[in-house]
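To whoever is on call:

I kicked off a structure prediction for a single chain this morning and the downstream step that reads the tokens threw a length-mismatch warning. I double-checked the sequence; it's 308 residues and nothing unusual in it as far as I can see. Pasting both halves so you can look.
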Amino acid sequence: MITISRREFIAQTSLAATTTAFCGAWIQRGFTAEPWPPPIVVFSKIYQALKLNFDDAAALTAEAGIDGIDCPVRPGGEILPEQAATRLPEYAAALNKHSLQVPLLTTGITGVSSPNAEEILRTAKQHGVRFYRLGFVLRKPEVPADQQVREVQAQLKDLAALNKAVGLGAILQNHSPTGRNYVGGDLADMYEIVKEFDPAQVGVAFDIGHALVVHGNEWRGHFDKLKSHIKVAYVKDVTRAGRWVPFGQGDIGGLGYFKLLRQTGCRAPISLHIEFDWSGGGKSRTRSALIKALRDSARVLRGWLAEA
């Protein structure tokens, strides 16, 4: 018979209770305790087309079978920066009624001096947010690329310290030019920006769609360099020619990307982005049309994750 001391018994009992409480809370929030696949949340910018209130947005998310939202808290977003302290708790409460969460935010924050930055982050932390996307910095053609990279790095230093104090991670998204060119859209620049930062404070929201548009087959090499800093995956489907299409009609599913993502250990919620025309050219911009687009997209995405 194996015997243990009273001290060991107490320690093991305490650990078991803590683990049970943690896993129970994790499952109750709608997230799986399994290491893969991660939950899927929707970038809820798409909800603004229907002018949904928070209760309607939460109900639609649940009906579509999505695990939560990636909420825009920025000028023109679902929540305005100056209203975050009151409106974000309201949205979180509406989602909680359906056992949904808001683990990600999309913000316009680029530094500690951004309007309402600290208030947004501290409020977000209180309501289960884990990562927030930084605002975009426009590429200045008249400024050498390496100089602008250094300027962005310098601006992020104080923000990294604030992130550490609050307990949140900032993420930068790579974005292809859309009439405007953004710093970090070229993943070589993205690597230079983040490489010296602790990934827990400043990481990457790797957007495979934009990576494919900008880098073609070379996206893989950039992914490998950045993988220590990849904290969140943004997913939308696109053709190599740069056309955003319904999930399953583009080239993303055949890249082997999700297997690589799984190997990195990235387990944060995946942010599903609807970039294709889901409303028939604006002729069917209805709740039912959006639910169908979300369900279909999530079904394809879950298939990709299951095959990884």
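Update from on-call: the warning came from a stale cache, not from the record. Cleared it. Sanity check on the structure: The beta strands are 40-43, 68-73, 101-107, 131-133, 169-173, 202-207, 230-235, 237-238, 244-245, 270-272.
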